[in-house]
Amino acid sequence: MVTIREVAKRAGVSVATVSRVLNKKGYVSPKTREKVEQSIHDLKYKPNDVARSLFKGKSKMIALLVPDIMNPFFPELARSVEDICNSYGYTFVLCNTDHSIEKELAYLNALQQKSVDGLIIVSSTLTGEHTKEINVPIISLDRTFDTNLSNVKSNNRQGARLAAEHLKVIDCKVIAHITGPENASNTEERKQGYLDVVKDEEWFSTDYIVSGDYNMQKAKDAIKKLLLEHPEIDGLFVGNDVMGAGALKAIEELEMQVPHDISIIGFDGISLGETTTPTLTTVAQPIYKMGSRAAELLIEQINDPDIPKKTVEFPVELIERQSTRKRR
Ligand code: RIB
Predict the structure, then answer these.
(1) Rounded to the nearest whole angstrom, what is the distance from the C-alpha of residue 242 to the centroid of ligand 1?
(2) pLDDT of residue 16
(3) 172 close to 201: Cβ distance less than 8 angstroms
(4) Ligand 1 — pocket residues by CB below 6 A?
(5) CATH superfamily for domain 61-153+287-315
(6) How many angstroms separate the alpha carbon of residue 19 from the centre of ligand 1?
(7) Closest atom, ligand 1, to C-alpha of 74
């Protein structure tokens, strides 16, 4: 494959001059331009994507960073980001960070070296300090970690209220909450929504709030322990659906029945919740819409870096399935 260096050499000019001719930017004398164009023609040179990104600092590539690729919420989210990116002619790259700040920073570094055009980030560990040196547009998705960035999320607090209120309506007497990771913004929002509904109840105690880290196994272990210590619990609002699956397993191992002994509501609305036995009642987020809106916002910002930052908050809905008792 012919390189830009060979074009420059044949024309007797520098690589930067060839770049200026290709990008129609900066002054090049008519005589030099002619020499470069002749060289391009003689060598049948075609600038490839890598070369183009080197000249322009643009790669037509967008990256999405997610904390846990094993949780089906994130592939569902990634799918919508990919669809929009592709429809605008962008290549899409997915990076799994394992909730690790070291992995996040390593990816951010590598992606900048590859002249990525924009980033969509789901994170609970990065801060504004980490992103302020990055000179491409960034959208925070699902979790808010830097209020200077455009953000796309769902109404987590309202969703948690819907869940806790529903558990009250179906006559649960003691409702516990299993939370996500401490530093995730939506962990706090969902906890606040739960507290809005239950904090003034006579039975309420913070002992009924335990962490499951948005992780199935950790949630399962935490729930078994919680239910052994507090057999009075008959309602569980679990901060995401994979922890809901962990809750179903924990309760089965304790030889209790869902929803007869205990009702469970998850959060997310991933398709996994339709396949469990019993199926999982959940607060559904519009996952596809969230991802596509984030991608559209990012592309708008790539095209016009000066457009004002936006926060988009999607409504959520309660989907009743078999893991909650029926209303009387
Ligand atoms: O299931 C993963 C969770 O982490 C979701 O609830 C989502 O909102 C994210 O923050």
Answers:
(1) 9
(2) 85
(3) no
(4) 71, 73, 142-143, 184, 186, 214, 240, 242, 267-268
(5) Response regulator (3.40.50.2300)
(6) 44
(7) 2
- Ligand 1 center to residue 258 CA distance, Å? 23
- For domain 156-285, give the CATH number: 3.40.50.2300
Whether this model's pTM surpasses 0.70:
yes
Domain boundaries, the chain: 4-47, 61-153+287-315, 156-285
For residue 33 the two structure tokens come to: 């331009």
The topology (CATH level 3) of 4-47 is: 434 Repressor (Amino-terminal Domain) (1.10.260)
Ligand 1 centre to CA of 16 (Å) is 46
- Token pair, residue 142, equals 């699902």
61-153+287-315 and 156-285 share one CATH topology? yes
pLDDT digits (tens, 9 = 90+) for 8-32: 999 999 988 888 888 777 788 999 9
Could you tell me which residues are beta bridge partners of residue 120?
64, 139
What is the distance of C-alpha 23 from the center of its chain?
Answer: 35
Provide the token pair at 4: 């830009």
Beta strands at 317-319 and 281-284: parallel, antiparallel or unpaired? antiparallel
- Percent of the chain at pLDDT above 70? 97
Q: What is the CA radius of gyration of the chain?
A: 26
The pLDDT tens digits of the residues spanning 170-221 come to: 999 999 999 999 999 999 999 999 999 999 999 999 999 999 999 999 999 9
